[in-house]
């Protein structure tokens, strides 16, 4: 098999729609998917992260003739500050912004940052919208909850959020000193876990430097069908704890590896450790890139190389041949979304 044909036989367990995406990019993507870019069902597991990419995924799903996409609906921790968990009653919009962002950002935002931050979105209304989309598209596409999670290092960009139309100088993203309080991140995360639990869906989880807290929260939700730790960056001891905790449980556990985060040389030992501890049926591969950035811009080979790169590394560590690996990973992917 050539390299690309290997990648075409796999599945991408975690990818995105880019922040520069447009409606016509989505239409072009739908064309490619409808014209048989890949002939496998459930190939592209596309995350949503905030209020804007949800619209793009909805638009994409509405045009697809086959179920080549698995859709994930959620609020990423990098956007959690845009959502309010409280009903502030009858205050004017400026006052509402001030109240909300002063509460969820640490330190409180400067006047400049506050001026570019949007009026907060009601988390409850957003969750209702996501649930509705799952209801509509769930007949044809497998749906999960994602990308959700916790991020202790994230700082709010000085234009308010990644993808804000208030573009920054020369497109470079400057970061403010404001972080989103862990209390707020946890509240937003928790609310989404409740939805996943209620709908018995799988979740794709992001975590940076908050692995202890994440591990304290997720196992409480016992009806989530699969917990997929994407581009896992915790310690190998923490990974071991996850594996032990989920042994024999109804909810399944997966580690999804990307080439650019988990496949680098300095992460080789961690990758070997986790694959060593995990069962073979807990391993997935992903690109964690924005599919439109590659596929609409003619960079197909580069896209598939992301998948092929991590495929080879995982295969080498497991000591399995290509055909076995293709079969294993495809089977694992199917298990992760049942
Ligand atoms: Zn991601």
Automatic annotation (TrEMBL):
<dbReference type="GO" id="GO:0016788">
    <property type="term" value="F:hydrolase activity, acting on ester bonds"/>
</dbReference>
<feature type="binding site">
    <location>
        <position position="147"/>
    </location>
    <ligand>
        <name>a divalent metal cation 1</name>
    </ligand>
</feature>
<feature type="binding site">
    <location>
        <position position="206"/>
    </location>
    <ligand>
        <name>a divalent metal cation 2</name>
    </ligand>
</feature>
<dbReference type="Pfam" id="PF01026">
    <property type="entry name" value="TatD_DNase"/>
</dbReference>
<keyword id="KW-0479">Metal-binding</keyword>
<dbReference type="InterPro" id="IPR053044">
    <property type="entry name" value="Metallo-hydrolase/TatD-type"/>
</dbReference>
<protein>
    <submittedName>
        <fullName>Uncharacterized protein</fullName>
    </submittedName>
</protein>
<dbReference type="GO" id="GO:0046872">
    <property type="term" value="F:metal ion binding"/>
</dbReference>
<feature type="binding site">
    <location>
        <position position="288"/>
    </location>
    <ligand>
        <name>a divalent metal cation 1</name>
    </ligand>
</feature>
<dbReference type="InterPro" id="IPR032466">
    <property type="entry name" value="Metal_Hydrolase"/>
</dbReference>
<dbReference type="InterPro" id="IPR001130">
    <property type="entry name" value="TatD-like"/>
</dbReference>
<feature type="binding site">
    <location>
        <position position="230"/>
    </location>
    <ligand>
        <name>a divalent metal cation 2</name>
    </ligand>
</feature>
């Amino acid at each position: 098999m050539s390299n690309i044909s290997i990648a075409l036989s796999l599945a991408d367990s975690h990818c995105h729609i880019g922040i520069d995406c447009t409606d016509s990019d989505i239409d072009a993507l739908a064309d490619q998917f409808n014209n048989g870019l890949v002939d496998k069902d459930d190939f592209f597991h596309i995350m949503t992260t905030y209020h804007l990419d949800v619209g793009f995924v909805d638009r994409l799903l509405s045009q697809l003739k086959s179920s080549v996409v698995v859709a994930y609906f959620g609020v990423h921790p990098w956007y959690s500050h845009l959502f309010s968990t409280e009903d502030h009653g009858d205050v004017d919009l400026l006052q509402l912004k001030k109240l909300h962002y002063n509460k969820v950002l640490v330190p409180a935002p400067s006047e400049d940052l506050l001026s570019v931050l949007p009026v907060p979105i009601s988390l409850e209304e957003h969750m209702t919208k996501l649930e509705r989309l799952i209801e509509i598209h769930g007949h044809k596409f497998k749906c999960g909850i994602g990308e959700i999670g916790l991020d202790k290092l994230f700082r709010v960009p000085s234009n308010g959020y990644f993808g804000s139309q208030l573009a920054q100088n020369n497109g470079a993203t400057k970061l403010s000193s404001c972080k989103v309080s862990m209390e707020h991140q946890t509240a937003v995360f928790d609310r989404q876990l409740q939805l996943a639990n209620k709908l018995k869906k799988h979740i794709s989880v992001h975590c940076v430097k908050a692995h202890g807290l994440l591990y304290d929260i997720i196992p409480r939700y016992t009806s989530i069908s699969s917990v997929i730790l994407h581009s896992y960056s915790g310690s190998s001891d923490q990974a071991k704890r996850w594996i032990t905790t989920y042994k024999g449980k109804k909810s399944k556990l997966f580690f999804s590896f990307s080439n650019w985060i988990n496949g680098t040389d300095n992460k080789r030992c961690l990758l070997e450790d986790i694959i060593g501890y995990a069962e073979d049926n807990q391993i997935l591969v992903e690109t964690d890139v924005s599919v439109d950035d590659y596929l609409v811009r003619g960079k197909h080979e580069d896209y598939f190389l992301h998948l092929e790169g991590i495929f080879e590394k995982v295969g080498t560590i497991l000591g399995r041949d290509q055909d076995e690996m293709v079969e294993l990973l495809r089977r694992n992917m199917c298990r992760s979304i049942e």
